[in-house]
Amino acid sequence: MIPPVALTMGDPSGIGPEITCKAWERLRGGQPFFVIGDAELYTGCPAERIATPEDAAAVMPRALPVLDLPLAAPALPGRAQPENAAATIESIDRAVAFAQAGRALGVVTNPITKKILVDGAGFAHPGHTEYLAALGGVSRSVMMLAAPELRVVPATIHIALSDVPAALTAPLLRETLEILHDALIRDFGIPAPRIAVAGLNPHAGEGGMMGTEETTLITPLLEALRATGMDLRGPLPADTMFHAAARARYDAALCMYHDQALIPIKTLNFSGGVNVTLGLPFIRTSPDHGTAHDIAGRGMADPDSLIAAIGLASELGQRRRAAR
User: Is there a binding annotation on residue 125?
Assistant: First the structure.
């Protein structure tokens, strides 16, 4: 039997409970999943406590399966509640443990608020991704945003634009491309991945007239990696990489900084994008949005990204499981 997908609770005061219920409403006839969280949160749908992940498949058609994790305080939608931070972290820990034990196909993380985790539990990691890498015992992982129209990876993520040139180094780009290449083969089932690489500067530097990073850093690295057998295109001008005809020529794109990667995918598919962490020993996806405290508890939250994240976790998890 195919294991279920494990969902984390996320910030219990955000939109996680609402979109989890909405996801169950749409998916209850398909891939089983369960959520690790306080059962009292899920008032928007029938919810049923389960004792083990293996119980999820039988419960899924009639109710949202919940592996109960009581909160320290009742959740107040839209409010920061540091007293519930420890449970939020424990939900992540349990989901990862189930995935590593083969009892869950993968982990789908509902959004968290880092400041609440720091204030309430002394959370010492920059974010979700870094914490999951620590749990998985890897020194570095890579963030991919994936939608049916586009897969894209930013080489640098949450840093100031002025800091990007110094952060872009040959070891960073090499490691990012190697993790991406391996993930496209192993998890996405693409035997010979084609990766497009954006330049940093306008017009990919235009021969050094608009910047030299392309000629001094990116091009030499791509040439070295091509010699190992990788199919790498670029460095390419970012402004011509993302129209339909260009996207048909590659399987994923590597960009140099956050907005260069996220603007095109969010323009193409704002609601259906999925955050995928590459390089982990387990599958992890998440919706591509935050906790949305401003609309929490108002019934307005869109579950499309969470639904896509569950579907992609199932797809990738089954492929990795079959390859064992």
Answer: no
Residue 177 Cα to chain centre, angstroms: 17
How many angstroms separate the CA atoms of 174 and 195, rounded? 13
Cis peptide before 46 (omega within 30 of 0): no
Q: What is the pLDDT of residues 219-236, one digit of tens each?
A: 999 999 999 999 999 999
3-class state of residue 185 by DSSP: helix
Q: Tell me the pLDDT band of 87, cut-offs 50, 70 and 90.
A: very high
Predicted TM-score of the model (pTM): 0.93
Q: Is 293 annotated as a binding residue?
A: no
Question: Is 275 within any annotated ligand binding site?
Answer: yes
For the record, the structure tokens of 316 come out as 């990738």
- 134 domain residue, yes or no: yes
CATH number at residue 261: 3.40.718.10
151 neighbors 218 (Cβ within 8 angstroms): no
203 is in an annotated binding site: yes
Cβ partners under 8 Å of residue 1, min gap 6: 57
Residues 8 and 134 grouped into a single domain: yes
